[in-house]
Here is the input.
Amino acid sequence: MPRWLVFALFVALPLAAAAQTSDVRAGTGGLQLDALDRSADACTDFFQFACGGWIAANPIPPERSRWGRFNELQDRNYEILRKVLEAAAAGGDPASKKIGDYYASCMDEPAINAKGIAPLQPLLSKIDAATSSADLAGLVAELHTMQVGVLFRFGSSADFKDASVQLGIAGQGGMGLPERDYYLRSDDKSVDIRKRYVEHIGKMLALAGGGADSAAAAVQVMAIETALAKGALDITSRRDPNNMYHKQAAEDLRAITPHFDWPRYFTGIGAPPIYALNVTEPEFFKAVDQLIASTPIDQLKTYLRWWAIHASAPELPAAFVDENFNFFGKTLTGATELLPRWKRCVQYTDGDLGESLGQAFVKQAFGPSAKADTLKMVHEIEAALEKDITTLPWMTDATRREAVTKLHAVADKIGYPDTWRDYGALEIRRGDALGNSERANAFEFKRQLNRIGKPTDKSEWAMTAPTVNAYYSPLQNNINFPAGILQPPFYRPGGDAAVNYGASGAVIGHELTHGFDDQGRKFDARGNLKEWWTEADAKAFTDRAQCFVDEYSGFTAIDELKLNGKLTLGENTADNGGLRLALMAYLAGAAAGATTIDGFTPEQRFFIGFGQIWCESNRPESKRLLAQIDPHSPGRYRVNGVVSNMPEFQKAFQCKADAPMVRQTQCRVW
Here is the structure.
């Protein structure tokens, strides 16, 4: 299910990395010395100085669209998970039977190929049997139960205005391209991608038995998805939570979509009574209704058929897998080879049985001392943020008190859940790869629906323990750091404090700052969407945030395409504030008695530790894609854009006042 409001550290494209281990020499202080490019001037291009050696030694694997430290670490985690799953698949331990059977079924490619399209045929036959638009709601319900995202999305979320309870939530969806504007832009590259997308749809329909009409059917699908896109809200506008909250009675939703049978849909998905829900984009649902009213049922059936095939492609025979990769891998991201099957199966197992698999990962890769050390660092950085809030010259006391109250209410979640999810009701059958995926999706969908009307469970995690990422939840006001990211190069147990604070400390500070960025600041200590800022303070914040918008909008993603400073504002604010908070915390405690190591002062090691977690290379296709959909800036700008705003960096590396890494107008909010 989608995470409706989660601010993550990193956005991963839907391809996993190939196994590749960098041969990097660690210094005595924990810096990766061979990752440096000592021919570069730190004051001219700090990203190149910190990462040039790593980039030269780590070309992008053919299976990847980009390659960076996140991917490198995730690969190491996958190696651990592979051993766990292979042992589980061999049998002998009843506790790991489900993950073993799931993985073994996924890995049995000959059996999957031999079955052909047969496992999907019952669903396709149901779609084919529809005779009128009156049948649509029941079909959409069945597809949504398997998390096939046709027409729109539905699930549960904390009520934006009363985050203590769960509410049904309906939002825009049903578009296969990465973002709404892919359907609407008129530049040559966008036109070419749309052309290739239609060709891809036609090929997938043909593989599933569509015959000679598949090309024409693909055009019909594209027309439907384009109509949805025209009614959708753009990605930048969706960043404002006020634009995404429209609580209304179920009757009101039926009033704006009279051609869709909501009672039949709610019955079909097995929802509890729905008296009210958040319709995140009402205008989109009006467009859905117009589409249903004006589109012949045969064309709607073609659209549903396409989505059933599209969503099932990873568990279908090789021809489907290859064609799916040809478009979503090669065309969109630039990857040239398909990911090895074992890594795909590790990913799918983690996605569907992640908390069962995560328990085994934690036992091997994340001990109690790592959790205690991380929590200590979190508390120190929270103390730094409190000091920052209480000394800001631009904030009045009224807002300051509320900000401190919110900070004190932040819950710190480290490593893994206190209580692991029970998958006892989920049936996994060895030899049924597609069925296992469908049942796992239905299990999760039902789990989320069952939350509607109940108190919000703030102990739940939106990421699995092996994940190399972290997030802040504004509706729960908590920060979450999976065990998967609390590994080198982000965190080294017993390592140099300067490097650990620059790397994992910056990650902690980043997530804390999300509670006070342009989105997070609109939620109060209880996670409610509420205006707790004075008008003057809100304006002061916006004025300072505009500096980041202007700065990052000037960075070039590729060719003529600039970064979207409004789309990336929250992440840029968190990057800048997070590193500053980590430095404050380090200097307030752990820096005591620190000396020069490997030729670098403690402050220099701090900044290099930060820079080296963002080392990465991107293919041109990936750069273009991410610039249009990713709220994060590329690694180069996550490094250079931040340090150029910090006088502490200028001092640490003795940069001249006119050096490129010293902005003449330095941006700062926190």
Remarks:
- Residues 558 and 656 are 29 Å apart (CA to CA).
- Confidence is low (pLDDT under 50) at residues 14-25.
